[in-house]
């Protein structure tokens, strides 16, 4: 197609390109906005725009494979008597049973547990498969309170109060009718087959003062043993983090706009929120001003793909990262082995984002029993564990090259930016200069 | 009966004891004095206890209750019996907003009035209010029954799923997708049982029934809330 149009000398509009024209035509045909899964697909300033300054004369590197470079992290020791001790700082972000199949949740638990990290429930409650396979399980406390159960609260290793999600800060979740199986409906106390909409506001508190009392209640119910996280979608991050700390959070979870979703309006995914690169320095500044950096831990997510991303996030001041989309890809999402099946439903391996439709050929974002059976939880769990190990090794490789004996010792001074946008957002110098746009004179 | 004064003991000490009643010589009856509006009283109970709080309680009193009976001789703050699973919570006075929010089971009785969002996102709890309820009550109510012996505020039952609502007095306005439904014998019988359980002496025939029109259950353009008056002029 592109060859022919170029041969004919046709010029495609940069403003009204073919995808834009297709969307206008789709909207005109249907009269309803597009809902899809995955995360933001537009180009955004990201970790790729940062580079590390490896050691040479002025810094002393550690030997690449043998010298100690620790990766463990403690989360939630501000108030909780039982903080989490994770072996690696890469956690599995909240994803619901409902959005994902039971086998997928099972596999996430297996993979995370194999490498000593945590996984997280989602909207819809805790499943036996998930609790059974997850050595360390974070229980999300969401506005919908679907499946919310005090027994599960007490069984959780941490509680994550969800205020927002990077893919849709300010919006509630969706789960389309084709994924509301009888089991999902029963867990959420909803009629089967309806298009479920989750609340975007918590039902019994408004504002940080109320949230502080809500957290006090959660701590009382769990006898002050269990760490309490607060998760926010990246938008007004500086203020949100300050208020989260004031409300009593042990841990702040910050999800950038590249974070994934199972079902959200396309316009929301692509146009609301800010990139994680721009959000982390705001969060760190807020924590530092309150004297809480490293006392209240910061977990960041939204577009983390590799050990390089992990290292960059930690150099900017995060204590750990969360992965969602990348974890699903490790399980088998968008794998070429299902290419023909993707084509049959109008997509292709590498492009599939219709998580809302429940027709996932890889058996991950579906409640169809036949499709779900395609995912072997044991095998998928091994794939995830492998991927998490690779990310950790990659991050260690970079940290050692910067002379760090612990991933937490990475610092902003180890980073430079490739362009002005990334330099301004990440608050690190443009490569080859001392210039931090927005902070120092040009 | 175990007696504990919150003038002398902390909320932590109270809840800690209530969470492990065997450690307190197996006592199941508790009398709590001097609550003075403290928050999170008797929350997360998980045994068949009888707890009386003699005075006013703050936010989230009896939150996430399971099995226990909690009686408050006073008013309560936001979110009394929120996410209750089972048991009975009785408030002798008035309740602030979000009473019984997201409750999955059990019975919440408010002998006075309840403020806004009473029964918000209710998921199986039964709530009987002797007086009025504020605006947006039973918002997104999924299951369970809400009985209002007085009046209901505006946007009653907005975006309701399958919760069943009974009101004896006036309803200021109904929320999206909430409609009045016929009151049949089975509903009067259901209501009679709820009122009796709550200790309310009202005639079921004086009540009207409300529930979901089930027209917002699927996304399509007619449900998007775009009204003619919103068009540009």
UniProtKB/TrEMBL annotation, chain A:
Residues 80-336, 360-404 form the Glutamate synthase domain. GO terms for biological process: glutamate biosynthetic process. Pfam families: Glu_synthase (PF01645). Keywords: Oxidoreductase. GO terms for molecular function: glutamate synthase activity. It comes from the Bacteria. InterPro entries: Aldolase_TIM, GltB, GltB_archl_type, Glu_synthdom. Belongs to the glutamate synthase family. This is FMN-binding glutamate synthase family protein.
From TrEMBL, chain B:
CDD domains: GXGXG. Signal peptide: none annotated. SUPFAM superfamilies: Alpha subunit of glutamate synthase, C-terminal domain. It comes from the Bacteria. GO terms for molecular function: oxidoreductase activity. It comes from Halovibrio salipaludis. Transmembrane segments: none annotated. InterPro entries: Glu_synth_asu_C_sf, Glu_synth_lsu_3. This is Protein glxC. PANTHER family: TUNGSTEN FORMYLMETHANOFURAN DEHYDROGENASE, SUBUNIT C (FWDC), TUNGSTEN-CONTAINING FORMYLMETHANOFURAN DEHYDROGENASE 2 SUBUNIT C.
């Amino acid at each position: 197609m592109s060859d022919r149009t170029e041969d004919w000398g046709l010029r495609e509009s940069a403003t009204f390109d073919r995808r834009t024209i297709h969307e206008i035509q789709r909207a005109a045909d249907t009269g309803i906005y597009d809902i899809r899964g995955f995360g933001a697909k537009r180009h955004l300033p990201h970790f790729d725009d940062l580079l590390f300054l490896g050691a040479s004369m002025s810094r002393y590197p550690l030997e690449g494979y043998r010298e100690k470079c620790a990766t463990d992290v403690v989360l939630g020791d501000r108030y909780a008597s039982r903080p989490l001790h994770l072996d690696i700082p890469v956690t599995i972000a909240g994803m619901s049973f409902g959005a994902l199949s039971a086998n997928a949740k099972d596999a996430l638990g297996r993979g995370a547990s194999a490498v000593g990290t945590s996984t997280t429930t989602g909207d819809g409650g805790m499943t036996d498969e998930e609790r059974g396979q997850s050595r360390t399980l974070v229980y999300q406390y969401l506005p919908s309170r679907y499946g919310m159960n005090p027994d599960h609260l007490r069984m959780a290793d941490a509680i994550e109060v969800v205020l927002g999600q990077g893919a849709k800060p300010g919006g509630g979740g969706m789960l389309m009718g084709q994924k509301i199986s009888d089991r999902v409906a029963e867990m959420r106390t909803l009629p089967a087959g309806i298009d479920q909409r989750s609340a975007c506001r918590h039902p019994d508190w408004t504002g940080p003062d109320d949230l502080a009392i809500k957290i006090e209640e959660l701590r009382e119910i769990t006898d002050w043993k269990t760490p309490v996280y607060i998760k926010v979608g990246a938008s007004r991050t500086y203020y949100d983090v300050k208020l989260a700390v004031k409300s009593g959070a042990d841990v702040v979870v910050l999800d950038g706009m590249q974070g994934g979703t199972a079902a959200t309006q396309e316009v929301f995914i692509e146009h609301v929120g800010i990139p994680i690169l721009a959000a982390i320095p705001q969060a760190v500044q807020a924590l530092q001003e309150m004297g809480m950096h490293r006392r209240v831990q910061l977990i960041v997510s939204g577009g983390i793909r590799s050990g390089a991303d992990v290292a960059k996030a930690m150099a900017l001041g995060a204590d750990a990262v969360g992965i969602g989309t990348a974890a699903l890809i490790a399980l088998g999402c968008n794998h070429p082995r299902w290419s023909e099946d993707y084509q049959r439903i109008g997509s292709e391996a590498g492009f599939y984002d219709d998580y809302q439709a429940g027709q996932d050929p890889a058996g991950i974002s579906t409640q169809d029993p036949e499709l779900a059976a395609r995912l072997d939880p044991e095998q998928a769990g091994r794939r995830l564990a492998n991927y998490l190990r690779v990310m950790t090794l990659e991050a260690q490789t970079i940290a050692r090259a910067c002379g760090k004996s612990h991933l937490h010792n990475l610092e902003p001074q180890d980073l430079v930016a490739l362009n002005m946008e990334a330099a301004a957002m990440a608050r690190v110098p443009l490569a080859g200069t001392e210039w931090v746009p927005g902070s120092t004179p040009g | 009966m175990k007696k504990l004064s919150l003038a002398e003991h902390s909320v932590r000490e109270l809840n800690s004891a209530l969470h492990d009643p065997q450690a307190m010589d197996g006592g199941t009856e508790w009398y709590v004095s001097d609550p003075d509006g403290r928050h999170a009283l008797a929350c997360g109970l998980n045994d068949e206890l009888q707890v009386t709080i003699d005075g006013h309680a703050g936010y989230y009193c009896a939150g996430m209750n399971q099995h226990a009976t909690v009686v408050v001789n006073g008013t309560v703050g936001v979110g009394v019996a929120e996410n209750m699973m089972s048991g009975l919570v009785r408030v002798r006075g008035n309740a602030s907003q979000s009473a019984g929010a997201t409750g999955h089971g059990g019975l919440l009785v408010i002998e006075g009035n309840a403020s806004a969002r009473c029964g918000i996102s209710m998921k199986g709890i039964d709530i009987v209010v002797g007086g009025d309820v504020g605006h947006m009550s039973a918002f997104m109510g999924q299951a369970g029954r809400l009985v209002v012996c007085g009046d209901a505020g505006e946007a009653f039952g907005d975006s309701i799923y399958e919760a069943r609502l009974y009101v004896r007095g006036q309803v200021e306005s109904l929320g999206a997708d909430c409609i009045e439904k016929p009151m049949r014998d089975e509903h009067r019988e259901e209501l009679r049982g709820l009122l009796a359980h709550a200790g309310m002496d009202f005639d079921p025939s004086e009540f009207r029934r409300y529930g979901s029109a089930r027209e917002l259950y699927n996304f399509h353009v007619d449900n998007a809330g775009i009204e003619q008056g919103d068009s540009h002029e």
